[in-house]
Amino acid sequence: MLQTRICSFESDPRGFVRATMSRGAELEGRDAREALESTWAVAGDQRTRVLVDMRLIRSETREAQQEFVSDYSATVCSAVGILIGSPVSRVIGNFFLRLNKHQVPTKLFNDGDAAVSWLLTNDP
Amino acid sequence: MSNGAQDPRLEEILEVLLSVARQEFDARAPVSDALDTVDAIATGINMVAEELGGAVTSKAKPEQAYRDLQAMQAQLAHSGKLAAVGELAGGVAHEINNPATGVVMAVALGRRTVSQLRQKLDAGATPEELEEHFTRLEELWADADEAMIRIRSVCEDLLTFSRMDDGPQVPISLNEVVRASCRLMNPSLKGSAKLELELGEPPAVMGSRGRIAQVVTNLLVNAAQAVDEDPTTQRIRVMTQEDGEQALISVEDTGPGVADEVKDRIFEAFFTTKPAGVGTGLGLALVSEIIDKHSGTMTVDRSELGGARFTVRLPGLHSEDSRVAAPGRAPVPESERPPEAQKRPRILIVDDEELLLKTYRHLLGTRYEVVVAKDGERGIEVLKGDNSFDLILCDLHMPGLDGIGLYEFLQKNMPHLLSGVVMTTGGAVSNRARKFLDETQPPLLRKPFNLKDLHKIIAQRLER
Ligand SMILES: Nc1ncnc2c1ncn2[C@@H]1O[C@H](COP(=O)(O)OP(=O)(O)O)[C@@H](O)[C@H]1O
Ligand SMILES: [Mg+2]
Fold first, then answer.
1. ipTM tops 0.90
2. Could you tell me the distance, in angstroms and rounded to a whole number, from the CA of residue B96 to the centre of ligand 1?
């Protein structure tokens, strides 16, 4: 378990990392980098599937979004399931999906169980 | 909290919308802890403002491109190529004008929608009743966004032009490009003709996406200008299909067609039959130049719809891909190799992505002695001081001196290291890089790669 300014990271024994954004998180570029580094660390220095719970997020900058579609991000994450809930997280999630450079499978979910089953269908 | 006209947040959101309509992208609407629908609207508008702001202030902003253009004019004029300058400047204006018109229209419609919103709000409408207007705004911003991206890519093109470079070459789906261009054009076509798409299964083509989009858009603009303005009878048809090993795209219309006496001249720069202010005569000149650059062909004849039919053929990717590559390099004789290091094998890693360098060091540091360099120049500096590396892991694409440059340096100065070079690449590969890869066939690691691939390729290299 690892906690950064806006997010906590936990390795799930089923073989993915669960990243949970704190209530009211305002995600900036450096947070995104830190999140990727933390994911890598929590996964034991290897590429991993990630479940991002952004239901309580308040905002995400353009810079942060771009970090998440970078080469580095693709090296850290093999698949990304994004949990959305609040109307705000829905908008942010959809905006994010619209970015055209996704190099790894990325999908939005309203339901945690569905997200996990989908994640596990992807290669680690 | 989110209770109709009483909600003070809607007023603030409107303020932000108005400033975006004035093309000021700094304002942001507040997002409350409720994270509800009204907050979501604020978020959407904030993100669009940030996108548009980013597009305008990015490194390729129009003023900068214009200054670059001026500098280039001075340079070209100096070498006596005035004609080229005029053509280029005109071409740029033409290419920026089309999408700029889209932005201006979207902004104008946005203004109107905002004032309708204000009226409804004053009349005490609930958020649900405002929904339709917000949706409309979202669509308009998406259009403006797309047009801004095109403008940016024109500016970027201009910069690559100045280096006489072809820009990034990527596999392109023609259908996708056609769909995007049509979506961009459709609003301005609505009043004049019905746009029909017949998309087949053309093979992917290798090229610059922005440029191919310019081809389609220019042909569409011409078709739209050729037809009488009557959507009930006038039609424009865009087709894509496979044609042997080639990808084919055609644009045809119900207009008068191209008159025989001008047929030979329409591809000339500045040739136009349209009144000043409507035609610049540069559209087809640009189109044929782009098609040339992509090794394609273009023909014009009469459409069964009655008007002109322009047909473009581009080489399909599979035919190009299966071409037999040049033989690999000869193995380096044993005697030329450096004396085997007794300690851990040494690896030099050259990559411009600092986080990746950090990761590599972390991953490989326990087994190997790792030295990192942030770009090609620094890599060479390291090598000049100490060239006893067993392996060089080098990114193909880096600003400044790239992987190819480093490879060439090694060929000239330290050929014994060549057999230990592994290239990495992050996807899009330029023409130059493709040629390099074809000719030298270095071991290649495609990002993203996993730990297993990395160790495997390193072990293979070190074994020899
Ligand atoms: N779809 C078309 N139907 C009829 N004539 C066309 C069509 N497209 C192009 N032309 C002719 O080719 C000329 C050159 O086109 P272009 O290079 O795009 O410049 P412009 O559109 O600015 O005139 C046009 O002025 C017109 O006479
Ligand atoms: Mg034209």
1. no
2. 18
